[in-house]
Structures
1.
Amino acid sequence: MLKIGVLGTGHLGKFHLNNWKEIPGIDIVGFYDPDDNIAKEVSDTYQILRFSDTLALMESCDALDIVAPTNHHFELCEQAIKRGKHVFVEKPLANTMQEAEQLVKLVNESGIKLQVGHVERFNPAYLSVKDMHLNPMFIEVHRLAQFNPRGTEVSVILDLMIHDIDIILSIVKSDVKNISASGVGVLTDTPDIANVRIEFHNGCVANLTSSRISMKKMRKMRLFQKDAYIGIDFLNKKSEVFKLKDSSDNNMFAFDIETPHGKKTVAIANPIVPEVNAIRKELEEFRNAILNNTKTVVSEIDGLMAMDVAHQILHKIGNLIITT
């Protein structure tokens, strides 16, 4: 049995506990939460031991699931890694680039497994298309959420947009060439809504809009590439594909269109979306990486790269605010 300890049992931490309880081969040794009311609720509901000391919990486990606020990520990850414990840590990897770089160094030196909680990598809508030949040259993203005081200790860039940054970096196999961004803090002291344009050296351009003060929810990504369009609806767990038909598309609905270069056949498909619980899937993959000694799906390097772009965006927005 793989012994797991959970650090932080607030809103998201409870989701993690519910899923850990359903994953075979896992023994939840205990949890730590500084809030007595939350801790009592968790102890009563889950019948799991509360540890009053983080280090004592770490010593009792093989791996830690860190679901604490972002400003605690570095300290808790550092303590766990130095004790040879595997780490699952919620996104973003750390609070600052310096902290993230230090964690990458510690993981490399220790040989433990670290996975970052970029849960949209496991969204069933994304899973339904990720193995297609994705080579987008234009990406459009809208991630809109209603205001929730939880999570506002970080900007909308590190709270919401970083999910899409991570996915885009995993799809576009090219370095970032240029970033332009604008953002406004409406209800908090950090940007609550932002629009970003990322240009890559291979010519791909990504336009991202994220807001946490919207009246409606939306989590959509649209990929445009030569001969194909792929739409991913993360919120409603749906995907769609429009492409020029080839010999392998016999099972797809198709119709002819007239173009300046003659008649072409367009194929349309709604890929089969697997019935997957994204949180459970990411935790299962973390367990598998430990047991099979394989790479984690979202590594510390992935977490660092997403943070690097996110912080470049914050820097651009900060400069814009200062100069206006």
2.
Amino acid sequence: MKQVVNGLQLFGKSLFAPILILPIIGLFIAFGNVFGNGNLAQYVPLLENPMIQNVGKFISSSAVSILQNLALIFAVGIPIGLAKKDKGYAALTGLVI
């Protein structure tokens, strides 16, 4: 029973890094949408600048592309967390399989 609990704890720790990425990506999407939204320019004159809007759209679209590849992040992150040594080999194996 103790081995099962230890195995589940190790698996939970390996999920920590990929899940930690989710709120960061959410913040990038939110800030990108705020800066890239032309409708908010009437309230905040700074947002009327096309360069700021383009940067906001770029940040938002980059974060969305990372979110779309979330399965890849989990496929690499979980083997890294579970491996005791040769973490790079475990990540590459997780990526390929």
3.
Amino acid sequence: MKRNNHRNPATTLTTTLLLGAIGIGTAPSLAQDESAPVVYPKFLTLRFEEDWSKFDPANGNDYWDDLKHHNLNNDGTNWVGMGAELRFRSESWQSFGFSPAATANDSFNLGRVLLYTDWNFGENFRIFIEGESAFASDRDLPGGRRGLDVDELDLHNAFADIVFHFGDSGDKMTLRLGRQGLLFGKQRLVSSFPWANTQRSWDGGRVIFNINDWRIDGFYTRYTPVAKYKFNDWRLGPDFWGIYATGKIGEDNSIGVDLYYLGLETDGAVTFNGSTGIEERHTVGGRLFGNFGDSGFSYDLEGAYQFGDVGASSINAYMFASQLKYTFKDTDWKPSIYVGYDISSGDDTAGDNDVETFNQLFPLGHAFNGFMDLIGRQNIQDLSAGFSFKPHRKFLVKLDYHVFTRTSDADSVYNAGGGILRATTAGASDDVGQEIDLTLKYLVDRHLTLQGGYSHFFTGDYFTDTSGGTADEDIDWFYFQATYKF
């Protein structure tokens, strides 16, 4: 395995600061009296979704309490909060891109810092600003330092909220304008992609209704692609809009429901299996999720249909995802087993004015089609199974297994970013491959999480058939990650 000896000075400094801050921030919390536990808001992927409005630092016992809610006036109606995330990840790849070449083996480090401030003026006005700085050491794999890895200094979120309350029921409407992360449902189609070193953002407006335990988001935005060494510019991304509703139905509200419409229009021409042009795509879908009473079984089902145009070609595409899980509640280690099946459509005939390749939009692919982020939700079938257990209340062990095949033998295999991973050829096998993912996760305390893992991709016959005579190798990936939040 090749090791990098040359590191970016900025990355080295960032890594030092990350590890130093983790050490400093953790020490006081470990030394605190735990005899009177305090209930804190849970840290969320989108930090602006956390609710610190009722938190009183005087009742806390944490090192960072005074930063989470600081009153700006005597009656406490105006207040400001602060928070941050510091993350370090080290990755090691062997045979990246299925290549046997020595240049396909590399190890590198990723680090990011997110810092936010949250200004609240009464119950009706709010300003939230979050900055991001993401760095990578020398990454000598094909593609070098990608937009997924580096965003030297930028705004991840910067928006204002105007809130209208309806009586004393807790119902409200929020008008939001500015740069913001989007994350809906299970994140199969819309996610800020927190696993990447640089997260996604959109510029635009949103209306949020919270009514009778339902939440309905209506939004019109433009995606802001990462410019690694410049300010991210919304003018370069596609328009993205939609309505997303989530709530509960059934007896005792036991069934979770998501219903959505999502629209996408590109600024420039795109190509799907020989059809090229401006893409205007509409996605309608829904999701059901919940538990089968107290049986230990839970389920998650989601389906979506897409229509629209790519130039002069019509879109007719679909996806379906499912998982059935059983948790042994009354046993030690709380083991769970689960099986799943995902399918997304591919194009049956290249360039025939009928685009049948599903567009995965802005997914959190990392959680569904393998931790290595090789395979995207386009022209793919994924039969998966796995199990997890907790040998300690803070320690999680998880093992996942995926079997990938193509949906259509006339279409290619796509990567987690939606690009072509390997173009198809006549007569190529539908056997894409198999992936196994081992994940270990340890919660040191409420701030610090340590995570590591190993993944192996068993290359299928498809890559051999489309390699042009070059041998294709299995891929190995190791990683270790430390995340500190306050």
4.
Amino acid sequence: MELSVIILSYNVRPYVWQCIDSVLAATQGIKAEVILVDNASEDGTIELIGEDFPQVKLLPNTENIGFAKAYNQAVNQAQGAYLCILNPDTVVGEDVFKSILKQIKGQDHFGAVGTRFIDGRGCFLPECKRVVPTPLGSLRKLLGLGGQKGVYYQDDLGPEQQGPVSILAGAFLFLKKSDYRSIGGLDEHYFMFGEDIDFSYKLLKKGKTNYYFGQQTILHYKGESTQKNRRYLERFYGAMVHFYKTHFSDSAVKVFAVSVLAQMLIWWRSFWPKGNDQIVNTPDVVVWVSQGTAPSDFLAGWLRKKALSINDVDFRRQTPEVLLKSALKNALVVFDRSSLSYGQIIELMAQGSLHGQAFRIWHQDKSLLIGSDSSDAQGEALILGSE
């Protein structure tokens, strides 16, 4: 077996369905397996995936054991020489795995490999390539002080460039299984958050080179299974403190300062008013993008009336080539997955971000309309009926 793609899910059924659909398209021609480890979802994830994708290996847990422990559990059963650790709210293009394998096979110096990330609006996510966060850098960031360039993100490498980086994001980590095991896998002290930073840093200390391929792009909606409540804050800041205590014990005073400030921020942010998670925006035009397939009357009617709350919205049909040239602004772009590849969709989204477009992907076979208008808010996944 050449590759094991491991996906972790927790109550994100529509997103993980789309993620697996894209992974299966991307593993065509590769000796690969797909493993879904589920942390006790209550939304029927296991039943849906088992029915629609019988080729996927399912590892259902009876409780939420966290990110690191669940991924380690799956790696222990993985058969591939290479691993791809993947978040459930991601979408990959058809050639991403083949391209990475072609470049790193036989190159023993590679540690983990990452790609360019875009969010549901097609906007670049800078956290896909980061520097090693130091206690002093985190103190400056937490305090909101100036001079943040190069403190968190690796800004010296452009989004579409490639080269060595220090830290990669755990939403997509590609590496040899032997390297994963050589550092003991993901540190299970991290329930969620921080395990990718710790993992990347341990690979560096092992003498490996983590690498960023900016020519390959994946879609990462972000935060679909995370509610930003007090528990979220405790885990987020707690992971930061644990990382520094593990790797920067010689900076005890700075680590202590980070710990105190983190506790203060947990307390303070717990009282912040909770905003509306849904981003409401009425586009000026709806664009159906397909290679010839017309939207059903029901979908077209729903887009006009339900999603937009207006009846006279301009509704257009375009091919991908025409959309790239039209540069429509304030448009809701709906992609027909039945006639477009995931690679095409991701490319069009990245281009559309320049014009402030919003996006949805339509899966005719599931009557599923899915997308996200902000990387800081939960997205929209709707199962549309026929009436």
